[in-house]
Amino acid sequence: MRYGFKALLMNKFDTLNGTCSMLVPSGPTYLNISLANQVCATVGAQLGQNFVDGNLITELSYDYYHSNLWRDFSVVCAFFVGFLIILFTVTEFNTPSAFDTTVTLLKQGTCTAEAVDEATTITTLPLITPFL
């Protein structure tokens, strides 16, 4: 699951440039400060930019790198193929249990004749024919 999560996260954040909702310093006394002297209050922010690169966020926050995307995807595919091989092998050699028939054994005297008749009675529904 880790490799799949990493691959999905890196794929999503690769092209993401998140705009900053709050620049530091900000407030009523800092109205005339240029963007070159402000920074976003988010991990991966760089001085003078009002956005944050998605790759920097994942690299600094989670230590995930975009260069590992295809490796992580390949690991997920290898796990899938490996589990399929295990499934096919186990089902191939476990076929005798598929042919066993279930037989209900009743202890003599525990089931009345009426209960047996009710259990074996098949109710039929009236046949509904479509209009022609």
Molecular structure report:
- By secondary structure, the chain is mainly alpha-helical.
- Helix content is 41%, strand content 8%.
- The protein is built from four helices and four strands.
- The protein has helices at 2-13, 54-62, 69-93, 113-120; strands at 17-19, 23-24, 39-40, 51-53.
- The strands form two sheets. Strands 1-4 form a two-stranded antiparallel sheet. A two-stranded antiparallel sheet has the order 2-3.
- Helix 1 packs antiparallel against helix 2 (54-62) and helix 1 packs antiparallel against helix 3 (69-93).
- The longest helix is centred in the middle third of the chain and has 25 residues, at 69-93.
- The chain is elongated, with a radius of gyration of 33 Å.
- The mean pLDDT is 83.
Summarize this structure briefly.
41% of the residues lie in helices and 8% in strands. The relative contact order is 0.12.
Primary descriptors:
single chain, 132 residues, mainly alpha, two-stranded antiparallel sheet, two-stranded antiparallel ribbon, 4 strands
Task: Explain the layout of strands and helices.
Elements: H1 2-13, E1 17-19, E2 23-24, E3 39-40, E4 51-53, H2 54-62, H3 69-93, H4 113-120
> What order do the helices and strands follow?
HEEEEHHH
Helix content: 40-55%
Helical/strand content category: mainly alpha
Poorly predicted segments:
none
Question: Which strands sit side by side, in order, in the main sheet?
Answer: 1-4
The tally of helices reads 4
